[in-house]
Amino acid sequence: MNENLILVLCAVIAYLLGSISFSYIFTKKIRHEDIRKKGSGNAGTTNVLRSYGWGMGLLVFAGDVLKGLLAALIGLHFGGEIGLCVAGVFAIVGHNYSCFLNFKGGKGIAATIGVLLIIQTIPTLIIFTIAIIIVISTKIMSIGSIIGLILSAVAAFIVAPGDPYHYIAVLVIALLGIWSHRENIERLIHGNERKLSLSKK
Fold it and tell me: How does it sit in the membrane (predicted)?
């Protein structure tokens, strides 16, 4: 099969996988409610966590990580390193702009973790640990997410010097995540970002 066609198929499959909204599916099936009508209206892990507690939040988080991981593995299997990078980017685009939710979605952090676990495994595990410590310390999810995205982009230049596909893909993924947090960044600047309750509901 033509290499370009393979990459297009990797992108389409990854986008469709990324578009699967576990926050919508789980809250609809388990609570019979639309997550988009709760809290911030965002179809993502943090809004589920705030609205329904840690049990549901972690369930959604796991689903989103797995879909990112699966999309990246499919890209790697069929398209090699370029396929991995293409699939990784499009999985995040699918999550943030889901074709199943009128091209809206979450902020892509859990799916990003899944993708980056394949693209740069060790740095991602280290950065995830750092981000968790930041969230626990500040009780602000967006700070941990944004710092994690920045560190991931920096790590890509360190672990893959001379590999443009690798660091361009990670940079694009990081920028997608930062863009999805633009409202959070504005609230952080003004000092009114919502804190996360670390107690179980």
Answer: Multi-pass membrane protein
